[in-house]
Amino acid sequence: MIASSEPRCGTCGRSLQGVQVSASRRSGTTDELGPDEPERDGAASDGSASDGSDGSDLLAALLDGMDAALCAFDADGVVTHWNREAERILGWSADEAVGRRGLAGWAVRSADAEEVESRLLSAMHAPGRLVHEFALLTKDGGRVLVRTQSAVVLGPDGKPAGVYCAFSEVHAQIDLERSIALSEALFEDASWGVVLVDVDLRPAVVNAHAAKALGTGRTSVLGRPLGDLLAQGVEELESALQHVLAEGAPPAPAEVWVSVRTPEGERRRCWRSGFLRLASPLAEEPVPLGVGWLFQDVTESKQVEQEASLLRFRTQQLHRASRAAAECEDPAEAVTVHLDFALAGFADHALIDRVAGGALTDAEAEGPVRLVRVAATPSGAPGPSRLAGRAGLPVRYAEGHPALQCVERVGAVRASAGAITAEEARGWALARQWPQDAVHALCAVLRSRGRTLGAVTFLRGAGRSAFERSDAMYAEDVAVRIAAALDLAGLAEEE
Predict the structure, then answer these.
(1) Number of C-alpha atoms within 13 angstroms, CB side, residue 226?
(2) What is the DSSP letter of 329?
(3) What are the pLDDT digits (tens) for 390-400?
(4) What is the pTM for the complete model shown?
(5) Which H or E run contains 321?
(6) In 138-216, where do the E strands start and end?
(7) I need a surface site. Which of 155, 200, 203, 272 has the fewest CB within 10 A?
């Protein structure tokens, strides 16, 4: 690239002194700084002319096609090369720049020229590249802060023949460095999961946090279908990724519930996810490269939020039931009111059984107990609870039945069919005198005035989860209100 020492172009093999003349004639990128290169043999081996135009065109295209501004100096500090990006930044054309000695008075203020030029030319005697920042002058008199990378150009004899200097505006360089630093930080130190998914919806890059959330290593997850990593929620997640590829990023984060496969079993997790469509910046038209998927595990906060919401709902139901029951003239009707309000969102069926022969004290509860059905929800179509058991016949509960255990223990009892077939689950429910679709049961004791009145049983079908401890606490609150109404109904009957 330096004319005085005739270094050769690594691409075309011609000396750059001869090349720059031809490039100047074709694109204005360089100018003639010395005698043209002597002509080679007049004809090629096949008899055609060989003037090196292909090599000069290639060099001119390479220089003008660079994204960075580039200029070069010979050993005396004369500008030998100046590409179009340098012209764009500073406004000086190649015709105006090439051939000038130094930068003083036109590209650099005269007061700063000596320091700037010495720093640039010092690259001839330094190993590697040198990076500097200083202000250059534009053609219209403005100033631009640039960052330069300069390195020595060696001649054919291996001695320094000049310097080339690539430069760009500092703010553009800083933006690039920030983008690179952000990418590296996201994939190394981010406290949320970051996954780059290709157009086939397979992970291409995964950061450490995401790999831990998926229960695998960073490399073992690459290229695998999402279905290999997630047991549930795959369809919803893939649908979101396909939507982003087709339509672009959604306006707000989405919460996706998934089940992650781990060596310890499946884990139910909630991931608050954001999606970004990735397109190639080098293509003339946007070409999708995949989707950037960022997610954060919000399972604990969602569970707390759900529990708080459920608690508010159940408290409101108890309040409404109490107000509605207070308007019932018949205490027995108040029993069914409490039961109906308790069922909403809690269970599919409910039964109330009363101790045969009247309430039991704690001492009397130690012997055999028989229960009589008082009220029940319809076993077929949904509807309000109905009073039953006018005849007073005991229910045929086998020994060890959960309702009997509840009365004997004076505490809540939970039961579940477990992992069995649908036919076996129907038999399990019918054997306990429950509707055939019941697979989960919760029995709460009815206590009033220090006596045991009976038990209330809540039943859930296969579409619901098993009863938990928080459900038992709610059932006991409902049982207290039902027991009070049932006790009042008994007193009314006695009167």
Answers:
(1) 25
(2) S
(3) 667 888 888 88
(4) 0.58
(5) helix 299-326
(6) 143-154, 160-169, 193-197, 203-206
(7) 200
